[in-house]
């Protein structure tokens, strides 16, 4: 379990570096408010970018992005809503996933822009 935590922390650091190299401005990493949590909050081109980071070791059976299921999406969207309200932001929001797979040579990074959209609320 400790190794998984270390890989996860390393992956988030690699993801932040990747975003910075691609001209994103990082607002927060591991932002928490009550039970809400966002991995990375950034901006680029006047959009608020919410990034979910998924890191795995080479040889994992399930693709990292498959861990972002409907329940996880709902929690991320709720947290993004709280974030925007808390900081009084009024800008378009985009939801991305960055996957990292660690092998002996480092990390293979894939950036999935517009990975999902906020689900519609049923009334």
Written overview of the protein:
The chain has 123 residues and is α+β, with helices and mostly antiparallel strands. It has a single domain, classed as Trna Endonuclease, Chain: A, domain 1. Helices cover 30% and strands 41% of the residues. It has 2 helices and 5 strands. A 5-stranded mixed β-sheet has the order 1-2-3-4-5. Helix 2 links the parallel strand 3 and strand 4. The termini are far apart. The model has no long low-confidence stretch (mean pLDDT 88).
Number of helices: 2
Mean of all residue-level pLDDT scores: 88
How many strands appear in the DSSP assignment?
5
Q: Which CATH first-tier class would you pick?
A: Alpha Beta
State the share of residues found in helices, binned by percent. 25-40%
How does the helix and strand content classify structurally? alpha+beta
How many structural domains?
1
Biggest sheet strand order reads 1-2-3-4-5
For the largest beta-sheet, the strand count, sense and barrel status come to: 5 strands, mixed
N-end to C-end Cα span: 41 Å
Low-confidence stretches: none
Give the SSE string. Answer: HEEEHEE
CATH topology label: Trna Endonuclease, Chain: A, domain 1
CATH architecture group name: 3-Layer(aba) Sandwich
Percentage of residues in strands: 35-45%
Gyration radius, to the nearest Å? Answer: 14 Å
Overall 3D form: globular
Write the layout of secondary structure elements.
Layout (H helix, E strand, L loop, with lengths): L1 H20 L3 E9 L2 E9 L2 E11 L12 H17 L6 E11 L2 E11 L7
Parallel strand pairs: 3-4
Antiparallel strand pairs: 1-2, 2-3, 4-5
């Amino acid at each position: 379990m400790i190794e998984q935590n270390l890989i996860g922390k390393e992956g988030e650091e690699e993801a932040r570096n990747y975003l910075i190299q691609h001209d994103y401005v990082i607002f927060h990493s591991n932002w928490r408010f009550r039970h809400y949590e966002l991995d990375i909050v950034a901006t680029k081109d006047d959009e608020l970018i919410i990034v979910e980071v998924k890191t795995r070791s080479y040889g994992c059976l399930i693709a990292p992005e498959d861990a972002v299921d409907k329940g996880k999406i709902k929690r991320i969207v709720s947290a993004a809503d709280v974030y925007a309200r808390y900081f009084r932001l009024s800008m378009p929001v985009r939801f991305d996933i960055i996957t990292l797979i660690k092998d002996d040579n480092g990390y293979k990074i894939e950036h999935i822009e517009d990975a999902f959209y906020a689900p519609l609320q049923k009334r």
